[in-house]
Structures are given as structure tokens and as C-alpha cells.
Predict the structure of Glycoside hydrolase family 43 protein.
Amino acid sequence: MFFLRTALLALAALALGVHAAPLVPRATFKNPIKPGGGADPWVLKYGDSYYLTYTTGGDVRVTKSSNLAQWAQTGTQVFNAAGRFGSVWAPELHFIQGAFYIYVAMTTTDGNNANHRMYVLKGRSTTDPTQPFDLVGQITSPDNEWAIDGTVLIYGNGRLYFIWSGWSSGSDQLNQYLYIAPMDSPTHINGSRVLLHSPTPAWQRSGSNGVNEGPEILVHNGRTFLVYSAAGSWTQDYCLAFMGIDDGKDPLVASNWWRLDDRPVFWKSDKTFGVGHASFPYDRNGVPYIVYHGMSDPNAGWDGRTIRTQSYGWNADGSPAFPSPVGTDVSLNLPA
Ligand SMILES: *[C@@H]1O[C@H](CO)[C@@H](O)[C@H](O)[C@H]1NC(C)=O
């Protein structure tokens, strides 16, 4: 009798799908996701692995992991700028047309910020981005003005565009704008730059600086979003802002883009400050994650930044619905 009752309960549980409940609690993680400091995180999923690169200042490092929320403190050096360049900022690793490329801002060895320009590196291996990268050269529009934080938009039927943060000229060093230009290969721009956004809204300004930087492309449900960072990266108000383009319109026509200028889409909480410079990988179940840097001390500045992640959802119109950044005390489900 007792056995029969147990068997019936087990059958009922099966029918209800209760057996699918995990036998052990789901693994969790807490932020930050990389020990030690870090800024400008960029995560690429390639094959069944994840690869992280971030700002080190003197070289480019790539770290491999099986999970997008678990990273070793130190990555593999794939490019050493010593003796050739200074202030190596915000590398991005892309796999385009069968090869790995890293887009990175570097300046002269004296560290003079006014000399920052974008450079492109090409991976020697077409399967393993922790192998060495070679310098291809500078990537610039004909104006050759100051440029950082370059990224690639692959649009429509595969056309490539470079999008970056730049000065209008060397005589306007307090404002960073977003620009776009056409590419005719993953290593070359073949047209003039077009101004996409100016740091005009008050919340995109810190003191006398207006900052639009860290542009990143996020494609979802056939829509193309451009998520960028705004306000001073050294302040607690650093945040993410939003614009986009739809219906296959020409991205080189600035008026074809819509802009959300009245508010940020991801900003500080009472636990986590200065959040920005994000990238947007998916876990193996297709759950979207925002990988960004932030700080626990609102006044810590650049040295207080660490690399963090959190899952997010989607709004009815297909746009990302970013969460409020949790503190380092909160346990989150480990990404699949
Ligand atoms: C740049 O190259 C692309 C791809 O080859 C080409 O379609 C486009 O017309 C070129 N643009 C200019 C301004 O030359």
C-alpha cells in the first residue's frame, strides 16, 4: 500500500514535470567577475568558448573561459605595445570574414592623449584568439583626428562600418562625439566620417567635458541598436545611452538614426556607480548579458573600476531592458 502510494506520487510528479526541478541548487556568482580591477570589458563568444579582453594600458590581453561570468585575473598577452605605443585603451575582439581582428586605441609612447588614434591588429590563428596578433596599422577616416573606442557595425547584407568616439578637431578637446565611416575591408575605412551624436544633453556632460564613447552594436529582432557610454568615465554618473537605426536605412545618413536623448538606459544604483562601456554576449541558453565596468565607491575614479555582469530582458519593441546594477553582495544565477 505504502509502495503504491509512493509510486502514484512519483507518477503524478512526472506528469506535472516536477521531476525537472534540479536536485542541487543552481550555481551562482557574485560581481565582480574578474579578480582585481578592470575596465572596458569586451566579451566574444566563439565556438563554445568565451573570450574577454579589456584595458590594461600597455598591451592587449585575451582570456578564455567556458563561462561568461568566470574569468581568471590575468589573460594571455596577444600584443605588446612596449616601445611602440602608449596608453592602450579598450581593445575589442571581432571575428569577421574568417579572421580575428582587434580594434584598439593607442597613443605615442609619451602617453600624450591628444595623439590617440585607432589601430587594427590581425590574429595569426584563425581559430584561437589567445595566439599572437600582428599590427596591421592605423584605421582612420581621411581627417585623421583623435579617435578611440572603435567598433564594427556589420549591417544589412554584410556591409562593414566603423563607429568610434572622436574629437571634431584638436581645438575642441573637451567634447567627444560619435562618428561612423564606411569600410571596404575589416582593416580599412574608405570614406569620410559622418557625425552620429554630440554630447549635448546635460546628463552626458561632466563639468566642462561632454562625453560620448564606447559605442557598441546590439542587434535584436531585426533591429540595430547603438548603445554608447556617456558622461565622464571618472565619475559616478558614467552611464549607457541609446540610439538606433531600422528598416535597412543607410547608416551614413545621420538623420536615418533615432536617438533617445532625454535619459540613460543603464545607470548607477545605490550600490554600484559609474557603470558603462558594456558588451553584450549571450549565454548558451540564449539569455542576454550585459558585461560592463562599475565601481562600489562612487568617488574611486578610474582605479575603482571592476568588471561585472548581469542578465537583462527585452521590451515589447525588441529593445533591451537593462536592469539596475546590483551590488557585489548579491548572488546571481551562473550563466549557462
Ligand atoms: C567603400 O567600400 C564599399 C565596399 O567595397 C563600397 O560599397 C562603397 O561604395 C565604398 N565607399 C566609398 C565612399 O568609396
User: Anything to note?
Assistant: Residues 1-17 have pLDDT under 50 and may be disordered. Residues 182, 184, 190-191 surround 2-acetamido-2-deoxy-beta-D-glucopyranose (CB under 6 Å).
